[in-house]
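ENTRY TYPE: protein
CONTENTS: sequence, structure tokens:
***
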Amino acid sequence: MNKYRTHNCSELTEKEVNQNVRLSGWLHRKRDHGNLLFIDLRDHYGMTQCVIENNNNLFSVLEKSKPESVLKIVGKVVKRSSGTENKDLITGKIEVSIESVEVLSDAKELPMPVFGEQDYPEDIRLKYRFLDLRREEMHKNIILRSKVISFIRSEMLKLGFLEYQTPILTSSSPEGARDFLVPSRLNPGKFYALPQAPQQFKQLIMVSGFDKYFQIAPCFRDEDARADRSPGEFYQLDLEMSFVEQEDVFAIVEKLMVSLFKQFSSKKILNKKFLRITYEESMKRYGTDKPDLRNPLIIQEVTDLFIRDDVKFDLFKKLVKSGSIVRAIITKNTKDQPRSFFDNIDKWAKEQGASGLAYFTIDQDKEIKGKGPVGKFFSEDSIKELMKNCNAEIGDSVFLACGKEKEIEKILSLARDKIAQDLDIIDKDQFAFCWIVDYPMYELDENTKQVKFSHNPFSMPQGNIKELNFDKPLDIKAYQYDIVCNGIELSSGAIRNHIPELMYKLFSIAGYSAKEVNKKFSGMINAFSYGAPPHGGIAPGIDRIVMLLAGRENIREVTLFPMNQNAQDLMMQAPSEIDEKQLKELSIKKDIKKN
């Protein structure tokens, strides 16, 4: 029989009244009522209230014990007196009358409390993460993460996938972020790279004749932290399938996501068959390729309005003549909003680096007119045209932005979210999934003006391969897709290019010679020349999925031991200095310039 416990701290109910039990756990909280001392004992499973009278010779032991000390308590289960039950606890109708206590581990004065859910500075929480993880909400988040991963594994096996493990030490490849490099002791001067993703290996698994692969894969990228992205490492559900088209991948992922989100959340899923939105449409309607479809606001194209003679808004008209565009956001029935609401949006836009947002409300007295700072510049007929084209009505308001397309997309994407939040029109009780499809194969680098891959370089271009116009690479679309939920990109995926000759051609457009392709992708390009099936896949981020299900806005809230925003592990003091002996073994010399 286990010497530490007969039950865990969530098991005891009225059925166990009068039983002698042993419990072990952390001293969560104690309450001294003079003649009685109440102890809340906590373990991984839950909480049990224990009580001791002041005439017990162990009273002083518990009185001196600090919160988070680890105790073994032996006692009898008794029913709580009427009116003292705790309905929030499974064990809330009983308590344990303490007969003996053993202090298994004393706790020092805590740098942060475990009892309660107070906000503490992130550096304290990360340095003492083992304490932070004892807090109820954090503990629940990590348990949720474990259950989500177990559920995904089970569902993937049901869907006919098999799990395979790919190498962690591999070669460096250009996949969009910086690699983490690992020096090779046996091959001086050479380095491994930790995988940014198992991209090439999972494609090689398809070439090897396996049909459906998945893996809960660790990925490593030396990139800056964001609320929805951990610096250093993250996990993804990596999957790949042979002999599939885009819709086959979509069908598998939709089935998995619907069952997963139904299993772990009571929130409504907006569309069981996820919307397909082209990249071009998404940028025009939402200003981003990560739209939050819970937000009903749509960006409207209104440039032609400023060609009209009866629109006197000269500032915008001059900009339009020089090549700028104008887009608008219509807010429904906002005529009664105070002037401060509109002014605050304009002020906010300027704080984002834009020139501001012009605005007016559609009003009607004897005639339809614009009410607000720029309303006087629009005739009744011009406002009627805007109403017709933008599905606007009397009482709606119009926010306008003018500039180059990229500038407008950026500010109106942010404004769309900001306005919706201020108006409280985002339904937070639902998950809104969509696919963003038809990404361009290439884009222009804003700095170098050179053509580069816009997404995954291993993607298959759309259309008849023999008829593609490689002289106009920016017109080529790819079978690339993103899955987005509530404005968060969960993953990018693609139908892969499995034809070596086509791969050489596509890479050459992005400035890679055949020699460079052979060097950087030797394993994959060589394998493709021995017969490769058409294949495709995707890799939804585990961390982001759990973040959505837990209702958290920062990925560190669902990660066991995350780094801070400077990619430092404050608890383990990583990264750390390496001694000269280790560096010599690796044939490495430090050359750090001091400021």
Remarks:
- The first helix runs from residue 59 to 64.
- The radius of gyration is 30 Å.
